[in-house]
């Protein structure tokens, strides 16, 4: 029964209609231009017509040359990066300058305190020269001098040093053939420097080189020149 029913329905339908595909695209894929408005139903393309693709062909560049390689965003990013690097360098220099100024202020404050203690060091030195720096008094003095030296205090001005007018103040001057040049031979007050700063010049006596006596003439001393007598001298 089912087979007879299907055959009756198929006989009433007739032959199947072919499928028609209409191209309704506004842009022509072959020329790339906009199509003019036409009838609603365009002629169907033949079934054996090749299928066209809108993509580029083999070897064709897909880069639009009208677009700049470096966009405005990339330029702005490069400028901001350069500004950031410049700001970082300026901050590094500022930090170094602040550290240098801070160290200079600290060194200047230390130098001021040490400079006020120099008369006390002079008293300790004179007491040591007279033999009065003994016992607990000597222990306290040694601790004070050691602490100041650790802080950066340095003394100068000893006998035998070459005279340097930038750190020595000459109050005496002598000459002697025993020295080759201006030399410190007497120290009246020791000098001190703190770091690169001279707190006090040393009071010294300077001895300069004394040139030797002129050579003696061989004719002096009662001896006559060889090969001549009194008559020769008169002539």
Characterise this structure.
InterPro entries: GrpE, GrpE_CC, GrpE_head. With 235 residues, the protein is of the alpha+beta class. The protein has four helices and six strands. Strands 1-4-5 form a three-stranded antiparallel β-sheet. Strands 2-6-3 form a three-stranded mixed β-sheet, with no helix packed on it. β4 (191-194) and β5 (197-200) form a beta hairpin. α2 (72-129) packs antiparallel against α3 (135-151). The protein is rod-shaped and about 140 Å long. The relative contact order is 0.07. Residues 1-5 and 218-235 have low confidence and may be disordered.
Brief summary:
The protein has 235 residues and is α+β, with helices and mostly antiparallel strands. Among the domains are: 63-151; 153-211, Nucleotide Exchange Factor Grpe, Chain A, domain 2.
Q: Calculate Rg over CA atoms.
A: 56 Å
| Largest sheet properties | 3 strands, antiparallel
Strand-residue proportion: 15-25%
User: Helical proportion?
Assistant: 25-40%
Written as H for each helix and E for each strand, in order along the chain, the element string is HHHEEEEEEH
How far apart the termini lie comes to: 185 Å
- Total beta strand runs: 6
Number of helices: 4
Mean pLDDT score: 76
Please give the order of strands in the largest beta sheet.
1-4-5
**Low-confidence blocks of residues:** 1-5, 218-235
| Derived structural class | alpha+beta
What gross morphology would you assign?
Answer: rod-shaped
